[in-house]
Specification:
Elements: H1 6-18, E1 28-32, E2 53-57, E3 61-62, E4 88-90, E5 105-107, E6 110-112, E7 124-126, E8 130-135, E9 143-150, E10 155-162, E11 166-168, E12 184-189, E13 194-197, E14 219-222, E15 226-229, E16 253-258, E17 266-269, E18 284-288, E19 294-296, E20 302-303, E21 305-314, E22 319-322, E23 329-330, E24 335-340, E25 346-349, E26 354-355, E27 370-377, E28 383-390, E29 403-404, E30 414-418, E31 424-430, E32 438-444, E33 449-456, E34 468-471, E35 476-479, E36 485-490, E37 499-502, E38 517-521, E39 524-528, E40 535-540, E41 546-552, E42 557-561, E43 567-575, E44 578-586
Parallel strand pairs: 3-4, 4-6, 5-7, 6-8, 28-31
Antiparallel strand pairs: 1-2, 8-16, 9-10, 10-15, 11-14, 12-13, 12-14, 17-25, 18-24, 19-23, 19-26, 20-25, 21-22, 21-24, 27-28, 27-33, 29-31, 30-31, 30-32, 32-37, 33-36, 34-35, 34-37, 38-39, 39-42, 40-41, 40-43, 43-44
Length: about 575
């Protein structure tokens, strides 16, 4: 919240002074977005071009979180609880961050450093400005080039765009385009399947008017390592002493600036339009965490959305990371893709889903019947994951509990499961182990080399549940309860449909005729035989041993008592040359 007045005028004046290489007095420092890390060397100057710089008093009130998360606890601050004239500094890397549970918190300006966060900021009155930072690393993947030619000015701009792409969002209401300086910024327009360029360097009008970051929306940002600005309205300024020779070559931070921090609810409507030859399947929208804190995606309401499709682009992996498989945690200033299932889709960001940026929910510790399948290779650090969750509310066909797979970058392996209609899934929700006996697992190797598939989460299932991985290329079947890691050679030209994950010993999969019904009750197997159909039932344990067989009478419910321990069994019925198999569980 903003209390306007003389301070705003003074701040504007100080900005103007600082932009012309202001040298601060001894009791001041010239603060700016620290895009150039070497900002402590005197004499102090202010970053140019195209970046506003700010003068703040020395000795800010620094949050330490020494005791707890309580904003009003003076022991959590270096100079006591902030007053209206206090400039608040919330550093990176702390164990505890401030939560404001009651009205009455005040400050002049507030700086939230990279990775820090704040909760309850609706109770905070900001008299000055709010600054929220995000570190953006440069990985250095092969460069792409984006050209824009301003014919009416005879000016030419070249952005050398490394594919270090970051999906970012704004934690303040009215962040301007100069948040990202000379970066390439794009907005995804789902109805036309197009990445629309938004940023114009140095407010060069040939790129159109400045834009404002919309809370709840996500934007694709590619940091620039090289920049040439030949426009008459954007000369290349001389670099102040103490800074890098070319400041934009060492940019690592992006800073979102406004008079307040986002709070309250933000509802974002999603679209789903089928575009022939589109980049993505219909329904993929780019959203963003709107708060100066992390959010728990599982607590975020939505409608007609594939909730487990939500994924963040990870530039260091050159791949998408699926949020539901990574503890449902969406960090501060983070954009993400999510898929609408059709018309009427929306996501509603709510205060109750917020949490501190360093407090990931430990869902993996409580997930039951949840498999994570990793693939990696011995040639580089790239890897990928796919997830299988058995959930009584899910079906075995595509539903809102599934998440479709988006493609990874070049050279990165991609692993996913496939439905009967060839839908590729990153997150596959299935009804139960009893309802299905196998799942196709597809792999596209990024490079030629030795790969490893690691299946994690088997311990979250009943101890008698079987898991086997079949390599169809090598005709190898591995018992994952004995060894959950499978190592093999692979090349990019391999058939993606190479693997099958079995939930029964291989060779005993389910073949239902549709006429015979098999199920269990207590320690009995029940076989419902059609009229005039004879048959024989074999009961087989998970080691593949037949423990008993029985003749079946037509037109009756045949009850077979199963001796032995609790666990899964295969019931195989042979009748009139037809084989029907069903996996059942005996108590």
């Amino acid at each position: 919240m903003k209390k306007s007045g003389l301070l705003s005028v003074l701040l504007f004046a100080m900005l103007t002074i600082c932009m012309i290489n202001f040298v601060p007095a001894q009791n001041q420092l010239c603060y700016y977005s620290p895009n150039c890390i070497n900002y402590t060397n005197p004499p102090y100057g202010c970053m140019s071009p195209c970046e506003a710089a700010y003068v703040i008093p020395a000795n800010p009130t620094i949050w330490t979180g020494a005791i707890d998360n309580n904003w009003f606890n003076p022991a959590n601050w270096t100079l006591g609880v902030p007053a209206m004239n206090s400039n608040v500094w919330i550093p990176s890397g702390l164990a505890k961050y401030p939560t404001i549970l009651l009205p009455g918190a005040v400050c002049d300006s507030i700086w939230i450093r990279n990775g820090a966060s704040i909760l309850g900021n609706a109770n905070l009155l900001i008299d000055g400005r709010a600054f929220v930072e995000r570190y953006v690393n440069h990985v250095g993947f092969p460069e792409m080039h984006y050209w824009h030619h301003c014919n009416w000015m005879n000016d030419q701009v070249l952005i050398t765009w490394p594919s270090d792409i970051h999906y970012l969002s704004s934690p303040v209401p009215n962040a301007l385009d100069n948040t990202v300086e000379q970066d390439a910024v794009f907005q995804w327009e789902e109805p036309v399947q197009t990445w629309v360029p938004l940023w114009h360097p140095c407010s060069d009008s040939c790129f159109g008017p400045p834009f404002i970051w919309i809370p709840g929306k996500g934007y694709s940002v590619a940091p620039n390592d090289n920049w040439w600005c030949q426009t008459t309205d954007c000369p290349i300024y001389n670099t102040p002493p103490g800074f890098c020779t070319t400041p934009w070559k060492c940019q690592r931070y992006r800073e979102f600036i406004d008079n307040e921090l986002n709070h309250g609810e933000f509802t974002v409507n999603l679209t789903s339009v089928a575009v022939p030859g589109g980049i993505y399947p219909p329904g993929w929208n780019l959203l963003g965490n709107p708060y100066p804190s992390a959010i728990d995606w599982s607590l975020t309401p939505s409608n007609n959305v594939y909730i487990n499709s939500a994924c963040m682009w990870c530039d260091s992996l050159n791949a998408y990371v699926y949020i539901a498989g990574e503890q449902n945690f969406i960090p501060i200033i983070q954009g993400f893709m999510v898929q609408a299932a059709g018309p009427g889709a929306w996501v509603n960001f709510v205060e109750s889903a917020r949490l501190h940026n360093n407090n990931k929910p430990l869902y993996k510790n409580s997930h039951e019947n949840f498999l994570t399948i990793d693939v990696s290779n011995n040639g580089d650090a790239f890897k990928d994951k796919t997830f299988i969750h058995f959930n009584a509310e899910a079906g075995n066909e595509l539903d809102l509990l599934d998440g479709m797979k988006l493609g990874n970058g070049s050279g990165v392996p991609m692993i996913y499961t496939v439905l009967a209609d060839n839908t590729s899934l990153a997150y596959n929700s299935l009804q139960s182990l009893q309802s299905i006996t196998q799942v196709p697992v597809h792999l596209i190797p990024g490079v030629t080399g030795v790969h490893t598939i690691q299946v994690n989460g088997i311990e979250t299932f009943n101890a008698n549940a079987p898991f086997f991985l079949e390599d169809k290329k090598l005709s190898v079947v591995q018992d994952l309860r004995v060894n959950s890691a499978y190592t093999f050679d692979a090349v990019p030209a391999d058939d993606p449909a190479r693997f099958i994950l079995h939930f029964a010993p291989v060779g005993m999969e389910q073949y239902k005729s549709g006429e015979i019904n098999i199920y269990s009750f207590s320690k009995n197997v029940i076989v419902d035989m059609p009229v005039n159909v004879n048959g024989t039932a074999s009961i087989i344990n998970m080691l593949g041993d037949e423990i008993l067989s029985a003749a079946l009478r037509p037109g009756q419910l045949n009850k077979i008592s199963v001796p032995g321990s609790t666990g899964y069994y295969i019931v195989r019925v042979i009748s009139s040359g037809t084989v029907t198999s069903q996996k059942i569980f005996i108590n």
